[in-house]
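Session log. Operator J.P. requested a structure for one protein chain; no other inputs attached. Running the standard single-chain path with token output.
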Amino acid sequence: MTMSVTNTRLQKICVIRCGKFRNVAEDPHSPMQIDRFDDLPPQTPLETDIVIVGGGPSGLSVAQELIGSGLRVLVLESGLSAETPEHAALNAVAAVDGAAEDGFQARRAAYHSALPSAWSGEVQRFGVRCRGLGGSTQAWAGKSASFDAIDFAARPWVPGSGWPVSHEALAPYVDRAAGFLNLGPNVYDARFWDLAGSARPEPEVDPAAFRDFFWQFSRGRINPMDVMRFGAEFAALEADNVRVLLNATVTQVHTDPDGGRFDRLEVATPDGGRATVRARACVLAASAIENARLLLVSRGSHAPGLGNRNDLVGRHLSDHLLAPVGRFDAAAAPGIAGRFGFYGLRHDGHSHMYAHGLALSETRQEAEELVNGAVFFMETRAEDDPVSALARLVRRTSPSPYRDAVTVALGPGHVAKAVGLRALQSDRMPDSARRFIVDTVLRRMPGTAAREFQFRGVPHKLVGAEAQGIVEQAPDRDNRVVLSDQSDPFGLPLPEVRWRVGTRERRTLLRMTQMLRDGLAEACLPVPELPDWAASGEAGAVPVIDMGHTTGTTRMSESPTTGVVTPDCRLHDVHGVYLAGGSVMPTTGHANPTLMMMALAVRLADRLKAEYGS
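Structure written below.
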């Protein structure tokens, strides 16, 4: 990267040697170079080979794959190293047409507010985005799985389904992405039992309706007590050809005068700083909502928006849909946890954690014209949980300090365990000892380890379990992101979301609820108490929320008349502009999408090396 600098501090930070970055005062193979864009002098020109917009798991996966490639790489992250309220406000969504049903926003706020540190349902009325290095992995639970083969197929009963690449073609990239996430073997079906050396539980739960499904949890390398935080892990890598600029929000994507090739980006900071970044190629990896918005606002050579000549940018917006499908009381919970709990797997000297659930069989999907879906099981916290009460008292947010004080006093065992776990997380604990303890717990007590991930290392008082149903949303061109007449702090139109849930998705959740009840009863397992809407049999009454797994707005396709990017994730009509992340996915099945998003990013990086490498 070349740049004009007059600031002595910046001259010490970065100079060019053989077309690569390096820190002058340090070893050429020093850890990742990360700076704030607002530390650059005004109007500093920036040049690089590959510029990546977005420092989430997809953008950082592309960058990580390009380490040592000989290509100069610049990552532009709108946020800082961690979330801040100022940057979270940039995630505002102007409106959510079709999501105004009673209780929708309250339900999603109750679900989504648990993990992100700066998320607000008033600001993000659709989706869950984190502006900061690592993107969504700053707030996720680490839950990972690959898609099913049926998710890539053109299903006659799911209009718009079908990928231009196959399940088999993507499998090697899924394995590479799993390495980034510190995952175990990519086995998510009944083959897990043989891999783990465990007998398959009997009797099966209605194999005509369901099949065994497993999710695994991405575990941090730096902090084994936490799930993978990809920003921190990336920052610890050594790379002299990659640089990250924080607090750098891209406001426009420009092409050459003919509109056929990428030329430059405009970048801004909240306090008014501006700069231009020129590169040979650009990768937009800023989320499904932001990727679409950036293309729509970039009208310099394409009046409808970049890549939008066929009015497809922003369309086919989709998300996973979630609804509670059953509840188990304290007496039934152990039986459910024993069957559908967590399993430790030792592989290549490392311990990994998997969760067992149920997924709809392909035959049942086809026979009843259902979308893909699954059921997973979670333990539930007591209202009089002493650790939660203690947290409220410490933060001075308790609505009833006396009642919470009594709750803490009556639960000394849970509080003592919490103190012990915090000691395990302390910097004074030797890293080797901590890793040994965590590995042992993962392998021998995976349920206990799961609680530490789920409840952030705090031993809460548990009173039962619940079953949650998750389904894919079928592609619908009328579900879309458009530009609002409201503006953000940079003067750009806010994204306006037009999104409705179809009857097919609600009917799938209703049928899964009914099949779960019948299947558990036939297998002599505890039968859940069903929600009121399930008894009515009315699919329209199913109370869904979006899962924050937003996808589809720049879907890949063979033809520019059916999608926005090619199977190689390049804009159909603009050379040098590539997209990464969930926005390129035509469909998403039921699985959490991060692993597959990263697999596509790894595949894209290979394409960039082949096209732009020496």
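Operator note: The longest helix spans residues 503-522.
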